[in-house]
Specification:
Blueprint lengths: L10 H17 L3 H11 L2 H18 L4 H8 L3 H12 L3 H12 L1 H17 L8 H23 L1
Length: 153
């Protein structure tokens, strides 16, 4: 992320700038407009960082461990911990984004593919162990959602 100037803005001016910014984002009515705006506003690194933070929140909400998230998204445990603390402390923005993402059927296939990948790279579990049961339940859920997508859509 870029640095903020050490010279402080007048608080009224800063509040007005933020207001204009949020109002502009709210006025963007389609994903393509939002994408175009954010791509021109943010560097590639900033875009990746924001996308990874959202992915961390979603994976945490699905019960993935720090280690699996770290291995998959190539993020530090400190970043995962920061997002996790914000989720636990009631960061409504993250919670709302996670709920919306889980509702959207179009995102489900992508998250299912990510879950399938995570299952495939995890160490095999001993039959009957808690880990085996968890992996089995996740796998059953993936197959069920895939079947529903194929037969409904």
């Amino acid at each position: 992320m870029g640095r903020i100037s050490r010279r402080h803005l007048n608080s009224v001016l800063e509040e007005r700038i933020h207001s204009v910014f949020w109002e502009h984002i709210a006025s963007l009515h389609s994903a393509s407009y939002v994408k175009e705006f954010l791509q021109s506003l943010l560097s590639h690194t900033e875009q990746v960082m924001l996308a990874k933070r959202l992915a961390i929140a979603i994976l945490l909400s699905r019960g993935y461990t720090y280690q699996k998230i770290d291995d998959t998204l190539k993020v530090s445990k400190a970043t995962i911990s920061t997002v996790h603390r914000q989720l636990l402390s009631g960061a409504t923005g993250y919670k709302q984004a996670v709920l919306e993402s889980n509702k959207r059927r179009s995102n489900q296939a992508m998250w299912d593919a990510l879950e399938k990948f995570l299952l495939s790279i995890s160490l095999p579990a001993r039959h009957g162990s808690t880990k085996f049961q968890l992996k089995s339940e996740i796998g059953k859920g993936l197959r069920k959602r895939k079947f529903q997508r194929e037969n409904i859509g």
